[in-house]
Give the backbone structure.
Amino acid sequence: MQFQKINHSYIVHVEKGEKVMQTLTNFCIEKGIHSAQISGIGAVRNIDIGAYDITNKDYIHRIFEEILELLSFQGNVAIKDGEPFLHAHITLGTHDMEVYGGHLFEMEVAAVGEFIIHDFQNKNTLRQYNDDIGLATLKLCNL
Ligand code: ZN
């Protein structure tokens, strides 16, 4: 992983073979990034994505082992259980130019992973468990 800091933003190059969610989460912990917007592009493999089933309060999973284009990664960072937590959704493209997408659990960089993190420098963006939804949802306050 390589990075470059520009004001309160970072350009992060997650390299071939590295896990994206693990690398970006560790980066946020290391840099004290508690509230942020993350976007990215690249080419990835061993992708675990899903969709949330509100009735069963559980995720449906699908694994893609093949190399796919990471067309778009959109995510945010908030504090959950005292640690930076990433929530991200992705859009993937096949070599037939078909598109898949979902909630991202994890994926590995197959060629390049290029991400931009905008650090809002705020410690009050929180996630708390919401019993109705069955997930830790954003709990926002303005101090
Ligand atoms: Zn999601």
Q: What stands out?
A: The mean pLDDT is 97. Residues 87, 89, 103 surround zinc ion (CB under 6 Å). Residues 77 and 85 are 5 Å apart (CA to CA).
